[in-house]
């Protein structure tokens, strides 16, 4: 790709100087004629590994993780390059991932220990009022709120209800 870009830049440069591909200057009549802009579209943006990683980071932060290997930002990478970038993103968030897994395990245990009827009540409440409101109320009722109450309510709504 880089060679094509350099070739294109060189061609544009020499055309702007009035030099043709064979190394001669155009005839005076041709040089005097105004050049019309070509109707071609702008060149497609080239993406690299940094763009792919930025996309994966944005997706992680938005809680929208998916295989982005065919997205424009990652499509030109080899499978090995893509896998390496995914690994780098995951390693960068390993503490978050471990903490989430630990929380979810504890929440799963608490859910399973809850009576089925009460689970239904929780799901109804989450469906009606939403995880944010229910989580905030849990924080207000907690002796030592951790801030995880909203995450827990959202987890129950998404995964259990």
Write the layout of secondary structure elements.
Elements: H1 2-16, H2 28-32, H3 49-61, H4 79-92, H5 94-112, H6 116-141, H7 148-160
Helix pairs in contact: 3-4, 5-7, 6-7
Distance between the ends: 50 Å
Q: Mind summarizing the main beta sheet?
A: none
Averaging pLDDT over every residue, what do you get? 78
| Tally of helical segments | 7
What does the overall shape look like? elongated
What share of the residues does DSSP label as strand, in percent?
A: under 5%
| Structural class category | mainly alpha
Task: Encode the helix/strand succession as letters.
Answer: HHHHHHH
Q: Report the count of strand segments.
A: 0
Low-confidence spans: 1-28
**Residues in helices, as a percent range:** 55-70%
Rg measurement, Å: 29 Å
Core attributes:
single chain, 161 residues, mainly alpha, 7 helices, 65% helix, disordered N terminus
């Amino acid at each position: 790709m880089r060679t094509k870009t350099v070739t294109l830049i060189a061609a544009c440069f020499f055309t702007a100087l009035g030099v043709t591909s064979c190394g001669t200057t155009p005839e005076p009549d041709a040089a005097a004629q105004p050049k019309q802009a070509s109707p071609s579209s702008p060149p497609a943006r080239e993406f690299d590994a940094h763009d792919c990683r930025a996309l994966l980071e944005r997706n992680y932060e938005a809680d929208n993780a998916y295989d982005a290997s065919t997205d424009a930002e990652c499509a030109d990478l080899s499978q090995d390059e893509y896998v390496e970038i995914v690994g780098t993103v995951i390693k960068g968030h390993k503490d978050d991932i471990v903490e989430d897994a630990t929380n979810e395990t504890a929440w799963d245990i608490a859910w399973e220990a809850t009576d089925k009827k009460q689970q239904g009540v929780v799901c109804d409440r989450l469906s009606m009022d939403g995880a944010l409101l229910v989580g905030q109320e849990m924080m207000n009722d907690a002796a030592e709120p951790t801030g995880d109450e909203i995450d827990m309510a959202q987890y129950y709504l998404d995964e259990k209800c």
